[in-house]
Write a structure and sequence with these properties.
With 469 residues, the chain is α+β, with helices and mostly antiparallel strands. The chain has a domain of 164 residues: ATPase, nucleotide binding domain (Nucleotidyltransferase, domain 5, 2-Layer Sandwich), CATH 3.30.420.40. It is built from twelve helices and 19 strands. The strands form five sheets. Strands 1, 2, 3, 6, 11 and 19 form a six-stranded mixed beta sheet that branches. A five-stranded mixed beta sheet has the order 14-13-12-17-18, with helices on both faces. Strands 7-10-8-9 form a four-stranded antiparallel beta sheet. The longest helix has 26 residues. The protein is globular.
Length: 469
Amino acid sequence: MNAINTTTAATPLASKGRNFVVGLDIGTTKICAVVAEVHDDDGTMTVVGIGKAPSEGLNRGVVVNIEKTINAIREAIDQAQQQSGVAIEEVIVGIAGDHIQSFQTTGIVSISNPNREITQHDVNRLLEETRKIALPADRRILHIIPQDYIIDGQDGIKEPVGMSGIRMEARVHVVTGLVTAAQNIYRCVERVGLRVRDIVLEPIASSYSVLDDEEKEIGVALIDIGGGTTDIAIFEEGIIRHTAVFGIAGRQVTDDIRKGLGILAKEAERVKREYGHTFMRSLMQDEVFMIPGVGGRKPLEFTKSMLCQIVQPRMEELLEFAFAEIRRSGYIERLSAGVVLTGGGSLLRGTEELASEIFGLPIKIGIPVGCGREGLAPEIENPQYATGIGLIRYGVRHGQYLTLNDIVPSNDEENGIAAAFQPSFAQQEEFAGVESAQNGAYYAPDAPSEASEPRINVLEKMKSFFQEL
């Protein structure tokens, strides 16, 4: 394997045949790369490298400055590669932004087998049928998530393979995004010399790292408060039922502090992290803090209660937007596990108490756990790494390993940009939430009907679309 273009070459691994997964969280305020080694004996993972860089080239999850985004990705990858000793070549990337839209639709097929037994091929045909929906030219499908199957009028079926029937229907949740938004993410990653192995909706990725199976079974809402967007994913009966993204998040809180106190953006971010509080009633002790003056002026003096009066209205707005979206989904009365808050925005003091006041449901701060036997587990167990760790676990779940049998690091500056998208077939597994009774693999909407057929997937279709423009 070749190293990417970096100033410091990765150290060759002493052992061969080790499996790694790399997640790249391209956020509005930070870009984070996480490298984990997957252990063959029990399928667990150990985080061996973390890279983080400030993100200045995105706005509400969408790339607005290619060069700044490329530089930030390169910095994060350099750090992760140096720390892990792994020459990174492929990554699983998260996508978010308020351009993400989702809706429900249905599909129907007839069962053509002489014995009327439903096979995996029939399921694949049905999920492919659900893709045949009219979309604007600037949008493409990112995920198709089956909700349940209906066989000859009998609904509520989760595993149709092996059952008998004449007519099969599926209710699915479809997630779409702007073609240009995805295209710009690919372009930035490839300009760093990496290949996009998969692209995953960020709230789906975060759910892998902070939710357990019991929560997903009885009903839970995940709210990932990032820097530029807030992402929502709702689960019930182990299946993702609803997704949404909106553009109110941590950066708006920072802007409010900057304007309200009349200070620099950098100072506003520091003040938010060190002194910010979101719920006045839970502010136990008011304190005075100083902010350096600008241009030789005297330092400014503020109190935590003054700062809370700025922060709380914005956080209330954010959480009320999330509450309205959950109510709109129709699952508000079915969230027995309540709400899990994660992402960097959930670290603001008082957020848990404010959310409890607004939602009237059990609230928990979601922290990635079980990140390894050793390695960097303590450093990574933080809500701001929920998406990065989730991307790793998505890759582990779908077997997207980077097997480094013989790493030969290089500083060769002629590596260039990856010539084409080379995502794995797991991209088309679409987080179906229903496992095959035959092989334990997730159903894939674009799965080939026969093993010998080529594996055609969403990213290849996107690539063809770009070439036609």
